[in-house]
């Protein structure tokens, strides 16, 4: 490794000018272009020592390229280029390779560069230098194809039972086929790869059509012919093999639950087809209110650089985890080096084995790569700017995702600020107000059943908001009376399982520079003697400790009240991301993210241990700090989640707000108030 590092090319090239243009500055954070993705692929395929084969159709016991995406520059190099006239950082790629065709299979990550014409590569190791076990790899499309084949083969003895109770099958089924949803983690201990599969009828919204059969399939062996069903659950009973379940059906000791045939002339309850009526006669077949831009756009997009009012920033859409902002500035002064989505988690409860096992960590499902097309007029206003993205995730080449990102200015429907100055005689001295608007940067992640709508909003007064809406289909299981302890019955044979959504963000704040301190502030009551009326006592508010949280630097002219309050950390936990609303750490290059694409299938000994970020007892005074923010909500499904969970009431997020950073509200620079 040392020899490889010594031969790695220099990380930067001479700058073309002391001060890069805004577009040049943002481009160091831009996603890899299709030509760069192809260049990395071709270079790695040409290296005989890697022995790579095309991923499509390759068996698990092959060496395949799974993921290629940008490897961002080191912060020190980026700031040197952006602020001090230093050399431009060389563009590099992160490549993930599944080495299944070796005596000891593993997953290896490589840094490949320089781009656009790569010449060499070197290994990338997670913090601690551990090797990535082969069992931790995400499931590829080819593995899903093999799972489908193994399931049909293993469940062949159950084909008569499945036809009897569902009217659907796994073989020769034409338009009446069964499918499955798999859950994770895939086992109970490191190294396992055993997945519970929920069988469903392949209808529109098949997530809401479980048939009552769940199957534990072991697919750890590199030879798919040796994959086998280890256990089954049907309607509340466990069976050790498909033949045992088939015999119980043949002997009459199994009470099957036949499912009704889908209605031929009525919309499915899981479909989007209109049905029912409203009690008023107000029109719903015409367009509702729309966003318009009567005098053109008030934002500017140049490459991956976005400007709006005082705001400027660079952005990208990572295949691995989603939206990532860099070099976020207001009026030319950086307020954050990076703000990014890290992980989305959903922990479920249930009575069935699949439900009780489900603990989704969506970075392990390529959360950023499932950024499908946004519909104008529904997902984003028609006047929005739509951008295509290219992913090379579980594919042999770059894949274009049309309209995966949208950008638009949104009227908030409430004034940013206003005042009516009454004269208390029926008139007024003055009225003044400023229309409420925000610039929205949006994408979505459709991780199987759930759709996450990811927003970053930028307000004219220097406030930034990160928000996520949850919608799509609920993760549901077959209804049994015992299951009602863990959810709600939402249809005849359907239980909506209760679950908790948690979303993790990284916020690398640079408040007037990188030398920041973490502070907390609370407000408490003081019981004092009234100074203007002795003998009376008053309660007044004063700064305390433990409530409001902030990262401070040398900013505006006003002082920040309160004193830092050191907080005791809770004890370690298996999923430490979800233990903290906010955790603040010193920034380290070997801690670029709080999760990884491997955490889903190796949660017991995670390659990225967020807890280790917190346990080094480092000072948070005058340091380069990162805030790790967790937001979430409990979802108890109900009938109104059919067919889909609605966005109202299912959104969470956080704000970054200036606190005495400016001398006054910076939105006074707007030339559009009404006075």
UniProtKB/TrEMBL annotation:
Residues 290-527, 579-667 form the Copper amine oxidase catalytic domain. Its cofactor is Cu cation. The modification 2',4',5'-topaquinone is found at residue 450. GO terms for biological process: amine metabolic process; response to antibiotic. This is Amine oxidase. PANTHER family: AMILORIDE-SENSITIVE AMINE OXIDASE [COPPER-CONTAINING], COPPER AMINE OXIDASE. Residues 1-25, 534-565 are annotated as: Disordered.
């Amino acid at each position: 490794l040392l020899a490889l590092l010594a031969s790695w090319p220099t990380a930067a090239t001479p700058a073309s000018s002391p001060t890069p243009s805004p577009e040049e500055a943002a481009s160091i954070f831009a996603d890899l272009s299709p030509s760069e993705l192809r260049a990395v692929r071709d270079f790695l395929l040409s290296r005989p020592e890697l022995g790579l084969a095309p991923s499509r159709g390759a068996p698990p016991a092959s060496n395949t390229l799974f993921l290629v995406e940008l490897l961002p520059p080191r912060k020190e190099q980026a700031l040197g280029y952006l602020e001090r006239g230093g050399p431009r950082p060389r563009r590099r790629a992160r490549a993930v390779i599944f080495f299944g065709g070796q005596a000891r299979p593993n997953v290896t990550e490589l840094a490949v560069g320089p781009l656009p014409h790569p010449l060499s590569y070197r290994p990338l190791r997670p913090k601690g230098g551990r090797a990535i076990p082969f069992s931790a790899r995400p499931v590829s499309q080819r593995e899903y194809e093999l799972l489908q084949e193994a399931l049909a083969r293993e469940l062949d003895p159950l084909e008569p039972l499945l036809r009897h109770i569902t009217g659907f099958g796994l073989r020769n089924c034409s338009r009446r086929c069964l499918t499955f949803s798999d859950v994770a983690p895939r086992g109970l201990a490191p190294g396992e790869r055993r997945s519970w599969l929920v069988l469903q009828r392949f209808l529109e919204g098949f997530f809401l059509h479980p048939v009552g059969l769940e199957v534990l399939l072991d697919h750890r062996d590199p030879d798919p012919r040796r994959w086998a069903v280890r256990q089954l659950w049907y309607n509340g009973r466990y069976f050790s093999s498909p033949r045992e379940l088939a015999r119980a059906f043949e002997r009459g000791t199994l009470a099957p639950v036949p499912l009704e045939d889908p209605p031929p002339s009525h919309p499915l309850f899981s479909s989007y087809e209109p049905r029912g009526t409203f009690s008023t006669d107000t029109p719903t077949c015409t367009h509702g209110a729309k966003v318009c831009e009567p005098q053109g756009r008030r934002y500017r997009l140049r490459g991956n650089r976005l400007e709006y009012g005082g705001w400027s920033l660079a952005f990208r859409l990572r295949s691995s985890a989603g939206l990532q902002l860099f070099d976020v500035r207001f009026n030319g002064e950086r307020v954050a080096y990076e703000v990014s989505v890290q992980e989305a988690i959903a922990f479920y409860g249930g009575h069935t084995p699949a439900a009780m096992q489900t603990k989704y960590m969506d970075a392990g499902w390529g959360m950023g790569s499932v950024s499908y097309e946004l519909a104008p007029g529904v997902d984003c206003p028609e006047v929005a700017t739509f951008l295509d993205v290219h992913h090379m995730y579980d594919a042999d080449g770059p894949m274009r995702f049309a309209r995966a990102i949208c950008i638009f200015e949104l009227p908030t429907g409430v004034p940013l600020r206003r005042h009516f100055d009454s004269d208390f005689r029926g008139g007024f001295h003055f009225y003044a107000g400023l229309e409420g608007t925000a610039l929205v940067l949006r994408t979505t992640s459709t991780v199987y059943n759930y759709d996450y709508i990811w927003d970053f909003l930028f307000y004219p007064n220097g406030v930034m908001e990160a928000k996520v809406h949850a919608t799509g289909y609920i993760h549901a299981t077959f209804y049994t009376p015992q299951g009602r302890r863990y959810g709600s019955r939402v249809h005849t044979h359907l239980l909506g399982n209760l679950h908790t959504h948690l979303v993790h963000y990284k916020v690398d704040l640079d408040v007037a520079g990188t030398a920041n301190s973490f502070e907390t502030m609370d407000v408490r009551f003081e019981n004092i003697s009234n100074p203007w009326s002795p003998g009376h006592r008053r309660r007044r508010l004063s700064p305390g400790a433990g409530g409001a949280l902030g990262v401070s630097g040398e900013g505006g002219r006003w002082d920040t009240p309160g004193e830092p309050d050191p907080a005791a950390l809770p004890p370690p936990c298996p999923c430490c991301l979800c233990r903290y609303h906010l955790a603040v750490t010193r920034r380290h290059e070997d801690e670029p993210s709080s999760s990884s694409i491997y955490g889903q299938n190796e949660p017991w000994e995670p390659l990225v241990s967020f807890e280790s970020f917190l346990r080094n007892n480092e000072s948070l005074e005058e340091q380069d700090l990162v805030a790790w923010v967790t937001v979430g909500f409990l979802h108890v499904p109900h009938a109104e989640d059919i067919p889909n969970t609605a966005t109202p009431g299912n959104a969470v997020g956080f704000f970054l707000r200036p606190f005495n950073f400016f001398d006054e509200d910076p939105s006074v620079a707007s030339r559009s108030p009404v006075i």
